[in-house]
Amino acid sequence: MSLIPSFFGNRRSNVFDPFSLDIWDPFEGFPLSSSVVNIPSSARETSAFANARIDWKETPEAHVFKADLPGLRKEEVKVEVEEGGVLQISGERSKEQEEKNDKWHRVERSSGKFLRRFRLPENAKTDQVKASMENGVLTVTVPKEEIKKPEVKSIEIAG
């Protein structure tokens, strides 16, 4: 068993995958305490939610991305295709409003922004991307171009 996956937090993405453009957070997994003064609170909030988990599978017809985004509405999520065939999924979960009389015992749900980018293969139809959100799961479908098989013509041998 390699030490590298456990060192980087057992992430499922592959460092050698040319299609993955994950944003690596060097502080992921480190406990944040009040002694961390050089990191602004907005950066800490972003890093807490930056690792939105996304699955990417390829079917014969399309590339399908599924992201678990519990508690987010579709208005809080943005799906874009950039020039060069890069799929970008981003969004923001707002912090819950604090009342002056509230006493918090535990805060475990993360808030902040997330951004994930994936370089799509050349056979992706980037002009036909579809996205839907149901029960906190975002599904992005990128159809694939049909691979044209080269036409083989039989030649009759005379003689």
From TrEMBL:
Residues 45-159 form the SHSP domain. PROSITE patterns: SHSP. The keyword Lipoprotein does not apply. Coiled coil: none annotated. Keywords: Stress response. InterPro entries: A-crystallin/Hsp20_dom, HSP20-like_chaperone, Small_HSP. CDD domains: ACD_ScHsp26_like. Belongs to the small heat shock protein (HSP20) family. This is SHSP domain-containing protein. It comes from Olea europaea subsp. europaea.
